[in-house]
Design a protein that fits this description.
Strands 2-1-13-12-11-10 form a six-stranded antiparallel sheet, sandwiched between helices. α2 packs antiparallel against α11 and α3 packs parallel to α7. A hairpin with a 2-residue loop joins β1 and β2. It has one domain: Beta-lactamase (3-Layer(aba) Sandwich), CATH 3.40.710.10. The longest helix has 17 residues. About 30% of the residues lie in helices and about 20% in strands. By secondary structure, it is an alpha+beta fold. It is globular and about 60 Å long. The chain has eleven helices and 13 strands.
Length: about 350
């Protein structure tokens, strides 16, 4: 009997000793991003938040080659579509205040909008079921001036059809999120950039986060987007569509995104009812699950419910990935045009596997 107990105890001790420490896990994460850790290459900023503590905030590589500035936790990256959660939050604030409703239609806001806008509501815009045409495909090839959110509204005002009947499909729509900024500006009389600052960024003391408009405000500690080519590194920071704010125009850094992430566990910016709606899966008309809330993608990974969003634009690939049940968040911001839209999604799964190998 004593021998059996001794063997059991040895097995238990062996099991306990095989559990990796937080420090060991962070070393493994660091190794995952070794390819970014070069002073000759565009880089990345990586953050891991566990139980309210940022246990990792680290920069890799170069943010700005012209000034030879390395990436740090204070480096501001263009968030691309990670922006959509902020756009959705601002709209939900208006709904919570009774200034707007989920069933408000485009025609209700813009009386001159084409007739098909009678069926498209705020909710359809938030969850990508509007069927609106993609504005990117409507810009003339010869155009050199950057498109802005107002231009997108004007484009939609000039057509009389959509891809599909409202609610029939979930089809990702940058157009919808550009229109949401114009709705907000019409309702509040404020520029979208100013609304965000006054109602989200300032209350959370996100002092380095902004919706960037050239000639109006300036991004401090800015990371510039790049493409890695055989002949070297080329700056590819802006495209014709980079000035559209609602779908991708916010710049932020790890330190500010920590404050944002933690606020989502509270009612500081939005009440629990509407936060829950933002984080809840929705369905198309035929009952098909979208894996999308309001400005947030949703998935179940290894039995854990995830709230996240990727961001991909010329020169940038990003993700903010939250596991509320574990009080865990991972953020990856990169300033290189490498891999597809969901390349950071693959990377963040590797990070999660290190911490939750189940």
């Amino acid at each position: 009997m004593k021998k059996i107990i001794a063997v059991a105890m040895m097995g238990l001790l062996s099991s306990c000793s095989s559990e990796k420490t937080t420090e060991q896990k962070l070393v493994e994460v660091d190794q995952l991003f070794s390819a970014y850790d070069s002073l000759e290459m565009p880089g990345a900023a990586v953050m891991i938040i566990q139980d309210g503590v940022a246990i990792l905030q680290k920069g890799y590589g170069i943010a700005d080659f012209e000034q030879n500035i390395a990436v740090t936790s204070k480096t501001n990256f263009r968030l691309a579509s990670v922006t959509k959660q902020f756009t959705a939050m601002s709209i939900l604030q208006l709904i919570e205040r009774g200034e707007l409703y989920l069933d408000t239609s485009l025609v209700d806001i813009f009386p001159g909008f084409p007739e098909y806008g009678n069926e498209i509501t705020i909710e359809h815009l938030l969850q990508h079921t509007s069927g609106l045409f993609d504005y990117e495909g409507m810009v003339p090839k010869e155009q050199t001036r950057q498109v802005n959110d107002k231009d997108v509204l004007e484009m939609m005002m000039g057509i009389n059809e959509s891809y599909f009947a409202v609610g029939e499909k979930h089809q990702y729509s940058n157009t919808a999120y550009a229109l949401l900024t114009q709705i907000l500006e019409k309702i509040t009389g404020m520029a979208f950039r100013d609304y965000l600052k006054e109602n989200i960024f300032d209350p959370l003391e996100m002092n380095n986060t902004l919706a960037h408009e050239k000639g109006i405000n300036q991004v401090s500690n800015r990371a510039y987007g790049h493409t890695i080519e055989e002949t070297g590194v080329k700056r590819t920071d802006q495209s014709l569509f980079s000035a559209v704010l609602g779908d991708g125009g916010i710049y932020s850094n790890l330190e500010d995104l920590y404050k944002w992430d933690q606020s989502l566990y509270t009612d500081q910016i939005l009440g629990a009812e509407y936060l829950e709606m933002a984080f809840t899966d929705h369905k198309t008309n035929d009952g098909k699950v979208m894996s999308y809330g309001y400005g947030w993608r949703l998935e179940n990974y290894k039995g854990m419910d995830i709230i996240y969003h990727t961001g991909s634009s010329i020169g940038f690939r990003n993700i903010l990935y939250r596991i509320p049940s574990k009080n865990f968040t991972a953020v990856i911001l990169t300033n290189r045009d490498e891999g597809g839209e969901f390349s950071t999604h693959v990377k963040v799964h590797e990070v999660v596997d290190i911490f939750f190998n189940q």
